[in-house]
């Protein structure tokens, strides 16, 4: 995601929404020939995203109030007469039903192959209410969003609705946000299978601390970790997860406090082996290294916190209550990375998997890099938790 927002350039709302709906790429884009409002970097990515996009696509095409669009880099086209518009819509619909025939302006339509979720509607789409959870009489209620298949209004994509109507407001109010059923069972299980395979075949290392100054790391955190870029063989589903995370954060950008998010870390795949390992109370970013949002995806099926432990407990700064979040399968959690959210992972007595990505604020990250280059920080430290 780093580099997708042009640094130093004036924001252009029309340009900002021109990115591949699947991977976020902003170069060499082509516009969907049916709805004329979404972009993809390749025909393959449009096919993969079709199950998520088709509701928005069909609604946008049938809405006569939507303005005509042009392909990036192409001049505006003259309005067609009604008969031509009807003929074009019929051709576009036919192309969509034939799984990807080419259309004018280099764009395409397509039913595609879906994203592997096997569901007619995209997981994680918006719903009309928010559930709350409280795990213990002393814990604070954590707002949660549970995806179900409610039709989209105003031609917003599911991720746009989730970001703008729930995650952004929830983060600004509580500093913590929980989304259930983020990917759906089939895709979530695919991510879990890849993580298990990684743990079996790849050398995981002991989790490190921000400043590695003692040999007592295992007394502080007991997880095993590896870092994934998303391009590695056997990590295709993990790459889709990372892309979906990026999509959510991109739609939230400008609505998360005063942050201007312009990049992220690689994905940290972590495993608590189930031997009572945990992570004592800590802050992800105590010293202004640039990380502003922590995003965690959990992969633990049939998790019973009373039996298995492993709860993420957050102690929001200035509040008497704490928030307990169980590491349930297909659950996505967001929270501020700085001193506002000290947190711990309680001892786990069953194998516990999670994937964490940290998003950077552009200004704080620039200051941190300058401080690092001028010798203002311990260069032996590692900015990971």
Describe the protein in words.
Pfam families: 2OG-FeII_Oxy_3 (PF13640), zf-MYND (PF01753). With about 375 residues, this protein is α+β, with helices and mostly antiparallel strands. The protein is built from 9 helices and 17 strands. The protein has helices spanning about 15, 45-60, 80-95, 160-175, 185-200, 215-220, 235-250, 305-310, 360-375; strands at about 30, 40, 130-135, 140, 140-145, 175-180, 205, 225-230, 260-265, 265-270, 275-280, 290-300, 310-315, 320-325, 330-335, 345-350, 350-360. The strands form 3 sheets. Strands 3, 5, 6, 7, 8, 9, 10, 12, 15 and 17 form a 10-stranded mixed β-sheet that branches. A hairpin with a 7-residue loop joins strand 13 and strand 14. Helix 4 crosses helix 7 (about 235-250) and helix 5 (about 185-200) crosses helix 7. The longest helix is centred in the N-terminal third of the chain and has 20 residues, at about 45-60. The protein is globular. Residues about 1-15, about 65-140, about 150-155 and about 380-385 have low confidence and may be disordered.
Keywords:
single chain, 385 residues, alpha+beta, ten-stranded mixed beta sheet, five-stranded mixed beta sheet, disordered C terminus, metal-binding, Pro_4_hyd_alph_FE2OG_OXY
Task: Break the fold down into its secondary structure elements and pairings.
Layout: H1 13-16, E1 30-31, E2 39-40, H2 43-62, H3 82-97, E3 131-133, E4 139-140, E5 142-146, H4 158-174, E6 176-180, H5 185-201, E7 205-206, H6 217-220, E8 224-228, H7 236-252, E9 261-264, E10 267-272, E11 277-282, E12 291-298, H8 305-308, E13 312-314, E14 322-325, E15 331-336, E16 343-348, E17 352-361, H9 362-373
Parallel strand pairs: 4-14, 5-6
Antiparallel strand pairs: 1-2, 3-5, 6-15, 7-8, 8-10, 9-17, 10-17, 11-16, 12-15, 12-17, 13-14, 13-16
Helix pairs in contact: 4-7, 5-7
């Amino acid at each position: 995601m780093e580099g997708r927002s042009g640094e130093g350039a004036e924001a252009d709302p029309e340009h900002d929404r021109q990115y591949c709906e699947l991977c976020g790429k902003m170069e060499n884009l082509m516009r969907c020939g049916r709805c004329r409002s979404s972009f993809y970097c390749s025909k393959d990515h449009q096919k993969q995203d079709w199950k998520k996009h088709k509701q928005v696509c069909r609604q946008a095409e049938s809405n006569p109030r939507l303005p005509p669009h042009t392909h990036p880099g192409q001049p505006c086209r003259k309005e067609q007469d009604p008969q031509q518009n009807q003929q074009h819509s019929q051709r576009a619909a036919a192309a969509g039903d034939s799984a990807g025939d080419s259309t004018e302006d280099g764009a395409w339509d397509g039913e595609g192959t879906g994203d592997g979720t096997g569901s007619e509607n995209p997981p994680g789409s918006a719903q009309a209410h928010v559930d709350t959870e409280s795990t213990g009489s002393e814990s604070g209620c954590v707002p949660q969003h549970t995806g179900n298949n409610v039709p989209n209004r105003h031609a917003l994509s599911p991720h746009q609705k989730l970001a703008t109507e729930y995650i952004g407001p929830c983060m600004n109010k509580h500093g913590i946000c929980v989304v259930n059923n983020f990917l759906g069972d089939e895709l979530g299980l695919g991510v879990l299978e890849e993580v298990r395979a990684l743990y079996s075949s790849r050398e995981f290392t002991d989790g490190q601390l921000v400043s590695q100054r003692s040999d007592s790391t295992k007394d502080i955190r007991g997880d095993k970790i590896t870092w994934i870029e998303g391009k590695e063989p056997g990590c295709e589903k993990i790459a889709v997860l990372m892309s979906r995370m990026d999509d959510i954060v991109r739609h939230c950008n400008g609505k998360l406090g005063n942050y201007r998010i312009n990049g992220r870390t690689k994905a940290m795949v972590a495993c608590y082996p189930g031997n009572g390992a945990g992570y004592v109370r800590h802050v992800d970013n105590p010293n202004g290294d640039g990380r502003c949002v922590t995003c965690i995806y959990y992969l633990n099926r049939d998790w019973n916190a009373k039996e298995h432990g492993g709860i993420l407990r957050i102690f929001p700064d200035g509040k008497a209550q704490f928030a307990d979040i169980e590491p349930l399968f297909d659950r996505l959690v967001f929270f501020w990375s700085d001193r506002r959210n000290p947190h711990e992972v309680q001892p786990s007595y069953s194998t516990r998997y999670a994937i964490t990505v940290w998003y950077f604020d552009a200004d704080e990250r620039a200051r941190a890099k300058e401080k690092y280059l001028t010798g203002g920080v311990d260069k032996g430290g590692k900015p990971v938790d």
